[in-house]
Amino acid sequence: MQEPLHRRRPAPGNPRVQRTRRHVLAVARELLPEAGPSGLTYALLAERAGVTRQTLYRHWPSRAALLFDLILEGPDLGTYPEPGSDVRTVATAWLKSLRAGIGEPAVRTAVLAVTAQADHDPESAQALVRIGQDRRAALNRLLEPSGVQIDDAECTLLYGPVLARLFLDRSDVTDEFIDTVVAQWLTTLGRGGDGARTP
Q1: What is the distance between the alpha carbons of residues 38 and 31, in angstroms, rounded to a whole number?
Q2: How many CB atoms lie within 10 A of CB 190?
Q3: Staple 150 to which of 11, 123, 154, 160, CB 3.0 to 4.6 Å?
């Protein structure tokens, strides 16, 4: 079975090493919402996962690296869209998938932690940049059949309102809200309701 497009693929290697990685990430996902970012120490994670701290540092030399993988290798929630030729449909499904992913407690906590640390931690700042690049690349892969490719600013215009609604307004992101965001985004891009460029 092919891995979903939204899942970041770890470098291929020893299957035992990959199983250890997946196990540690699963334990970290359980611990992060209850312990919080500062409480998720490598000592605690090593104890709960049944591995050594050296194993953790071999996979994730920094907390930012661990949080990065927690975000991009989150559980498959079964909500990721398929590539398609209709820009509106793909963008709407992609935002709904983003909403579902951020709704997962460990992912939400990891995103907030990386964002909070980015001003004073260069590794966290770089992780944020890489997450944005990864998500834009994934969206552009979904949009390939439509012939549309978007740049950084256009991607931010799409997901920005959803993140603002979730993290700043602390409000629900309804399907209607997503529909409105996508309609405004298409207008901003100069595209009609079907995603086709307007004259």
Answers
A1: 11
A2: 10
A3: 154
The share of the chain scoring above pLDDT 70, in percent, equals: 87
Return d(Cα 128, Cα 130) in angstroms, integer. Answer: 5
Measured CA to CA, the distance from residue 39 to residue 189 in angstroms comes to 43
- Distance between CA 77 and CA 38 in Å, rounded? 26
Structure token digits, residue 78: 């079964």
Q: Above 90 in pLDDT, residue 195?
A: no
Compute, in degrees rounded to 10, the torsion defined by CA atoms 114, 118, 123, 127: 50
Tell me the torsion sign for CA atoms 44, 45, 51, 57: negative
Report CA-CA distances (Å) from 166 to 38, 133, 175. Answer: 22, 21, 13
